[in-house]
């Protein structure tokens, strides 16, 4: 054994056994002899031994009871215990090993063999500890790397979303606000215990960044239509609608390379279904009710609310109360009635978000 001397605790009610054990082991180990299980537990408050040599037959707490208490305590459970006893029948040995002892040695014992077996157990314990700390370091490293990948992913998505907003000059701050509304609506659903079967399977760290991509297909819409200072005609509206298919195609291409990505699955739901309507009159597929992915149903309320309260070249900015009335009016036709119900309960929070962005915009001027 290299390095610091290992510590061995000997527990035996017989004083001469304790003295013999100490004399035998003291040249190799730091030895603490104690005459009872009660004294062992007292000493364990001050010293954590590398191994315990435990007698079985002792008055009051015997060795079997003592090892049960050791194994039940997280601080002591990993200390290897060797029974050293004159109870030399097979059943007792089996019972001792079943209780978690690493070895069971009969008295009288061979001194060199006792030392060898103690050293073996110390070596195994040392190796176990090394594996445990290595595994701990690996887990730490993996979660650090995951966090790095996650924040890199978010930064890239935010960059894409910002680029999209730069192109669409009338929708400043829209994506960030919509993301806030979706977060609030999810919290509202959770508070009311709605759709929990589905929400409990979600990872919110993936959903919220994916929301930013919902209009990514607008990247393929001509500038003249995207920023037309007036209402779109029929043909232009048709072209505008293709932003959903363009978006689906873009996300599907990435999914081909990463089919297991939870983030991309959410992204596909919001990109592909955010213009579907509860009554089946939306596009591109005319999905109805709960056929529409929940993420997209949430986004529909968030997106429309924010579009309503924002100024566009072809429409005035509605007041919060007007927008709220339009959303409520769309309950069960355009929007999921459950989500509108939750929205109604938290409309003041929506209003606060709009005010906060307005204040930020003034500060930026
Ligand atoms: Fe859209």
> How can the largest sheet be summarized?
5 strands, parallel
Helix content: 55-70%
**CATH topology-level fold name of the largest domain:** Hypothetical protein af1432
Summed over residues and divided by their number, the pLDDT gives a mean of: 88
- The H-and-E topology, N to C, reads as EHEHEHEHEHHHHHHHHHHHH
Instruction: Give the spatial strand order of the biggest sheet.
Output: 2-1-3-4-5
Number of domains: 2
Top CATH class of the largest domain: Mainly Alpha
Structural class given helices, strands, pairing? alpha/beta
**Beta-strand level of the residues, as a percent range?**
5-15%
In DSSP terms (H or I, runs of 4 or more residues), the helix count works out at 16
Give the name of the CATH superfamily of the largest domain: Hypothetical protein af1432
Number of strands: 5
Which residue ranges are poorly predicted, with pLDDT under 50 across at least 5 consecutive positions? Answer: 361-365
Small-molecule components bound: fe (ii) ion
Rg over CA atoms, rounded to whole Å, is 35 Å
The end-to-end span amounts to 72 Å
């Amino acid at each position: 054994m290299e390095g610091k001397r290992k510590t061995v605790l000997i527990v035996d009610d017989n004083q001469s056994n304790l003295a013999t054990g100490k004399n035998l082991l003291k040249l190799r180990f730091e030895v603490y002899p104690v005459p009872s299980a009660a004294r062992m537990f007292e000493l364990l408050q001050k010293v954590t031994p590398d191994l315990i040599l435990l007698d079985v037959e002792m008055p009051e707490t015997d060795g079997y009871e003592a090892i049960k208490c050791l194994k039940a305590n997280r601080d002591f459970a990993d200390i290897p215990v060797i029974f050293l006893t004159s109870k030399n029948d097979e059943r007792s040995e089996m019972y001792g090993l079943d209780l978690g002892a690493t070895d069971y040695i009969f008295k009288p014992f061979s001194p060199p063999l006792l030392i060898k077996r103690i050293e073996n157990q110390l070596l195994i314990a040392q190796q176990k500890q090394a594996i445990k700390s290595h595994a701990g370091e690996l887990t730490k490293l993996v979660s650090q790397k995951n966090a790095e990948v996650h924040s890199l992913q978010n930064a890239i998505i935010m960059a894409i979303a910002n680029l999209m907003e730069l192109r669409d000059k009338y929708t400043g701050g829209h994506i960030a606000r919509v993301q806030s509304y979706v977060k609030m609506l999810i919290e509202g659903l959770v508070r009311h215990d709605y759709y929990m079967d589905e929400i409990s399977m979600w990872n919110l760290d993936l959903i919220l960044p994916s929301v930013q991509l919902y209009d990514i297909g607008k990247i393929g819409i001509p500038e003249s239509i995207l920023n037309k200072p007036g209402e779109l005609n029929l043909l232009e509206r048709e072209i505008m609608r293709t932003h959903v298919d363009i978006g689906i195609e873009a996300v599907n291409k990435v999914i081909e390379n990463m089919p297991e990505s939870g983030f991309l699955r959410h992204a596909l739901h919001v990109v592909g279904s955010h213009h579907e309507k509860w009554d089946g009159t939306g596009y591109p597929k005319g999905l109805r009710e709960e056929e529409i992915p929940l993420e997209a149903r949430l986004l529909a309320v968030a997106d429309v609310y924010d579009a309503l309260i924002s100024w566009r070249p072809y429409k005035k900015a509605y007041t919060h109360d007007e927008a709220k009335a339009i959303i409520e009016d769309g309950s069960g036709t355009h929007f999921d009635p459950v989500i509108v119900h939750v929205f109604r309960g938290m409309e003041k929070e929506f209003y606060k978000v709009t005010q906060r962005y307005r204040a930020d915009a003034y500060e930026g001027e």
